[in-house]
Amino acid sequence: xxxxxxxxxxxxxxxxxxxxxxxxAINKPNGLLVHRSPIATNTNVFAxxxxxxxxxxxxxxxxxxxxxTSGVLLFxxxxxxxxxLQSQFENRTVDKTYHAIVRGYTEDExxxxxxxxxxxxxxxxxxxxYKTLERTEVPVAFGKHATSRYSLVxxxxxxxxxxxxxKHFAHILHPIIGDRPHGxxxxxxxxxxxxxxxxxxxxxxxxxxEHPVSGxxxxxxxxxxxEFKRMLESLEFSV
Length: 239
Prior knowledge:
Shape: globular
Domain Pseudouridine synthase RsuA/RluA-like: 23-171
Mean pLDDT: 92
GO molecular function: RNA binding; tRNA pseudouridine(65) synthase activity
EC number: 5.4.99.26
Enzyme class: isomerase
Largest sheet: 10 strands, mixed
CATH class: Alpha Beta
Number of helices: 5
Number of strands: 12
Distance between the termini: 48 Å
Catalytic activity: uridine(65) in tRNA = pseudouridine(65) in tRNA
Order of helices and strands: EEHEEHEEEEEEHHEEH
């Protein structure tokens, strides 16, 4: 029998966005690992265990989100639903939407078609579409510039490679604010010193897929985390 770890008494419950008899979705906070990983030995708190303890039953993640990425994370509650949901992700029939704050002014719309190499050395096709929701210019000097420019972008990854969105925006020279190691260290230092920002500004805001039992279209949306909201206000975005 699998051992259930105890949640600390002061643990904040996860925000449940959707739940029925076969699946559950949460708004994953920044910094929370989905499950145990040999490359992250500095924590013993994981979304799988936290959610399992919270709802009192076994959960299995249907997809993944980076530790530093917040937003919609979907879990299955039985093996049949897990297989059905995972097949949708593998077959690219799930519509995933992210929001990010990036350095500079991005194009109104863009397509990033840039292959990525995974941790096993295999190069894979990687495609990301995006559109710019808003641009801002704030009176904060940076380098030789008297002001700083940023964009709020809506992102639609068509493939699901590791750190794909982060690597793609770094590739087009509009790195995501707070991203390490793919982002801009000088910008990250600026945000740490001026706004005490330690999180990455990438949020999985919406997911749309087919219900594994009924077949109906399900759309789940996750509100921004508090730090994302704070930076929207600090950078004078109007949203």
